[in-house]
């Protein structure tokens, strides 16, 4: 074969395809070092200190003394502690039941591109900008049994004291939490709904599916990842709620709204029993982690794969 023929064949040959995956490389470990250091300093180290204190007797002034399992035995025999843990789970469950469907509906509605939806969504997200303490003080004033709205509408609220019974007090806590945190979860669902491919709805319209059928057969399945993420945030947030109870009910009436986080505060800053308070804190971490893992496991979230797995 002549040199000219060989060169022309080389010029006509198709270039070799580049190996897949070589277009981008994963970031090095150093990229994660600042975040890992921050997490270790402000999360891991305090958690280790709390775990150590849970096995010690300490009043906050003298030196801690090793107490073994005394704090844990005391908590297991404490009826208020058992009740507070149950109340924490109850409030968390009620929050998930109320906020999840409400957030999904509002998020899907807010995903529309009409101007009026954008304006109403911006107004609706205002509670998310306020601190928990400010929101609690606001609703404490509005629901005051002497000067608040219930006192002026006894035909609806009876004697007007919504903080006088366990049922109404828990209802107030659920309502206030829903009012403040539903916008956060609505925002999650709004972003997830806008990520649903439009071609799915177009195909459904061709098949004659209406809005309701499209919602249940297209939108909800596509929001599965967002639902699990939102629920985990609700669980962790619900089990660690403190400010709302402190300002609105102060654990009352009696101990009927004394959740575990508030009971931890009482043990630490009123009884000066930091060992028992640390044990409660560690127990809350364990319960939150366990519930989150159960949600992830039962939902199959750990087996889900994204279309983009990162670099």
Structural write-up:
The chain is an all-alpha fold. It has a domain at 88-258: MetI-like (MetI-like fold). It contains 16 helices and two strands. The protein has helices spanning 3-12, 33-53, 70-76, 79-110, 115-124, 126-129, 132-142, 149-152, 154-157, 166-194, 198-206, 211-222, 224-239, 243-248, 260-269, 274-299; strands at residues 56-57, 65-66. It has a two-stranded antiparallel ribbon. A hairpin with a 7-residue loop joins strand 1 (56-57) and strand 2 (65-66). Helix 4 (79-110) runs parallel beside helix 10, helix 13 runs antiparallel to helix 16 (274-299) and helix 15 (260-269) runs antiparallel to helix 16 (274-299). The longest helix has 32 residues, at 79-110. It starts with a helix and ends in a 12-residue tail after the last helix. It comes from Streptomyces cavourensis. Residues 1-25 are annotated as: Disordered. One of its GO terms (cellular component) is plasma membrane. Pfam families: BPD_transp_1. InterPro entries: ABC_transporter_permease, MetI-like, MetI-like_sf.
